[in-house]
């Protein structure tokens, strides 16, 4: 376990190095654009705007983190109840028939199956902190079945795609950022994100089933995938025929009812297990407080960089170029400012999250482009980080076709997020 932890730490540092260069690039590009505007356009006040933005962005980052403290404490406390009450284990047993079909190379009853179920269930409930160690454990178990220790197996790739596609039923973090940004209804992105992340996961699964020659016409597989498609399709059909006001009202009703239902299920499960629900909540809430304090320097770093990049006019240039390219294709351009979030998403979770927060601060949390950015942010996970950490943890060097299929799921999720935003908010 010590070797595993050290190796994971090394990979994490490599990604921090990549993020380091991205972060520096924001400042350097902002400086170059500001220099050009001051020398050739006579806009000497641009320097004051940039420095003023740095102070404002730093204050905004702290205010966001401070405001997240209560929300994080609430939800991590509730999640701790659900975790101890065995709700995650219940989800694992519930999806067992489906996973037996998706992982035909894993013997029934093998320890890998239990870890896979736990990891995916934790991801579905938004338990990122619990999902990662469970995922590493699952990769270790899958490696015991691997005859070529440096080469990824079909089961490993399927597992990685499930994680990279980011299927999540409760996007708590995004709703928290929207609440902190002053959204009138922070949960109104719940259904668009659910639709986008489902489409991303479905495309990834179907593409891999075709690649791995898994029988898609298996009755159980058809029942699960077809059933989920029907549910999502009915939701889209139901909302597509409504005007914007009714869509917002009904989506809010469904989203909040589902979220409150999850809370009730957690509490009832805790009572059923005769556990001290209150103490479990307090323990989880303490973790929420620590998490809120921990993210302050990260938010300050990324928001200041993006704020100065925007104040210099560099963000406007990039966005305008993208808008012109999209308009040339005859496509509506209202969503274009959210495109940097999609481009950053596979590389850096904190970077894409910072871009989303910046859009909410610039245009307002309830602006269409802010909602598009939130839908994109919640559609998938940070692809390259997931693949590197999970494969690196067990010494996999030959990833075979994992990257292109993960990238397919990522692009599909971003596109689905844009379409979902148009369906619900357009």
Comma- or semicolon-separated keywords:
426 residues; mainly alpha; 78% helix; globular; disordered N terminus
Which percent band covers the strand fraction?
Answer: under 5%
Helix content: over 70%
- Major β-sheet profile: none
Head-to-tail CA distance between termini? 49 Å
Structural class: mainly alpha
Q: From N to C, what is the helix and strand string?
A: HHHHHHHHHHHHHHHHHHH
Q: Low-confidence runs (pLDDT<50, min 5 residues)?
A: 1-5
Mind sketching the topology for me?
Blueprint: H1 2-40, H2 46-84, H3 87-94, H4 96-102, H5 111-124, H6 128-143, H7 154-164, H8 172-180, H9 190-212, H10 219-240, H11 244-272, H12 277-294, H13 296-311, H14 314-328, H15 339-344, H16 349-363, H17 368-377, H18 383-393, H19 402-425
Structure description:
The protein has 19 helices and no strands. With 426 residues, the protein is mostly helical. The chain has one domain. α2 crosses α8 and α6 packs across α18. The N terminus is likely disordered.
